[in-house]
Design brief:
The chain is mainly beta. The chain has one domain: Barwin-like endoglucanases. It has 1 helix and 6 strands; from the N terminus they run E-E-E-E-E-H-E. The chain has a 6-stranded mixed β-barrel. The longest helix is centred in the C-terminal third of the chain and has 7 residues.
């Protein structure tokens, strides 16, 4: 005996964690190119700017070097970094103020200053 059955499966919703729920911690590096940024402005190595993959261009963030506790406020004006484990690329000027020019990279906490609640670094 053949029994016809009908199953209806609703597609599962895509689950993505909103940016404000993500811990913005990880590696940071610096760059000092003289090229156009994603925002359309020219990269200024001495400016307090940075590249981030998803934060809205123009967002201001506080970046804290977890190795020495130094912090700076930078404006997101470019896209990147594109290296696994890195969460932000900083201008040379910002990296200098954070004290990691010679190392080239460091571990940081990135706190957007937009009033949203973000988890801190573990």
């Amino acid at each position: 005996m053949l029994v016809a059955t009908s199953f209806s499966f609703a597609p599962l919703p895509l689950v993505s964690q909103p940016a404000e729920a993500a811990a913005l911690c990880g590696g940071a590096s610096w760059y000092a190119l003289r090229s156009k940024t994603a925002s359309g402005e020219m990269m200024n190595p001495s400016a307090m700017t940075a590249a981030h993959k998803t934060l809205k261009l123009g967002t201001k963030v506080k970046v804290t070097n977890l190795r020495n506790g130094k912090s700076v406020v930078v404006r997101i004006n470019d896209r990147g970094p594109f290296i696994k484990g890195r969460v932000i690329d900083l201008s040379k000027g910002a990296a200098s103020r954070l004290g990691f020019i010679d190392r080239g990279h460091t571990q940081v906490e990135v706190e957007p200053l937009d009033g949203k609640s973000y988890k801190g670094c573990a």
